[in-house]
Amino acid sequence: MRPTRPTRSARTTVAALLIVGVLLFPLYWMVNASLQPSTALLETPPRWLPLGGTLDGYREALSGQGGALLNSTVVAVGTVLLTLAVAVPAAYALSRFSLPGGRAMLFALLLVQMIPGIVMANSLYAVMNTAGILNTYAAMILADSTLAVPFAVLILRAFMVTIPRALTEAAEVDGASPLRVLVSVVLPVSRNAVITSGLFAFLFAWADFLFAVTLNQDDATQPVTVAIYRFIGAHTADWNGVMATGVIASVPAAVLLVVAQRYVAAGVTGGALKD
Question: How confident is the model at residue 81 (pLDDT cuts 50, 70, 90)?
Answer without folding.
Answer: very high
